[in-house]
Amino acid sequence: MRTLKAIAVLSLLVLMAACRQDMQDQPKYKPLGASRFFADGRDARPIPTGTIARDELNNNDSFHTGENNFDFLDTIPLKVDSALLHRGQERYNIYCSPCHARTGDGNGMVAQRGVKIPADFHTDRLRSVPPGYIYQVIKNGYGAMGDYGDQIPVNDRWAIVAYVKALQLSRDATLSDVPVDQRDHLSATTQPQTGAPR
User: Fold this and answer.
1) What residue spans of the chain are helical by DSSP H?
2) How many CB atoms lie within 10 A of CB 48?
């Protein structure tokens, strides 16, 4: 009788163990598996129209890459006006000036604290690079400079490029480079103030 009870208890334990369902054994659909629930017999569902996978946006056009047929763009693909330059200056001062300085000479606060001196935008080499090159450096980084592709949106990258090019032009600008209708305004703002000496 005792043996019978032991066999019954043992059988019951075996049955209970067989009914146990751990998290790893839970019912679920597996990639490319079959399903009796859906009419087409597939467990993988078709992707809804217009769905974009995370980080898989089709952004390989020249506006997003800064190049066309493996050549850097030699123009900025946005209308360069004062609004774009002001936006570029604002973004430059936030992201770029700590290393490159507000003047673009590479003597920003980070460089003054002993970190490797960043590029000076006023060297002959960097003055001659096309805008697409600068865009790609902002997006992907270069040397000790990290990439800013995730921090700076595409339009702001181009705005920074426009501002860097304006900084480069301003270093050696002369009055003849200023449009005629702006020269009087420029002359009025740069005249020394006259008054009684202190």
Assistant:
1) 2-19, 62-65, 82-95, 97-100, 109-112, 124-128, 131-140, 154-171, 180-190
2) 6
Integer angstrom CA distances of residue 150 from 20, 31, 189: 46, 31, 40
C-alpha–C-alpha distance, residues 167 and 140, integer Å = 22
CA dist 68 and 60 (Å) reads 10
Q: pLDDT digits over 81-134, tens only? A: 999 999 999 999 999 999 999 999 999 998 888 888 899 999 999 999 999 999
pLDDT tens across 11-47, in order?
Answer: 777 766 655 556 667 777 777 888 888 888 888 888 8
Q: Are 161 and 104 in contact (CB under 8 A)?
A: no
Name 116's bridge partners.
none
Give per-residue burial for 143-152: e unless 16+ CB within 10 Å, then b. Answer: eebeebeeeb
Per-residue pLDDT reduced to its tens digit, 146-186: 999 989 999 999 999 999 999 999 888 888 888 888 888 77
CB 95 within 8 A of CB 167: no
Distance CA 192, CA 197 (A): 13
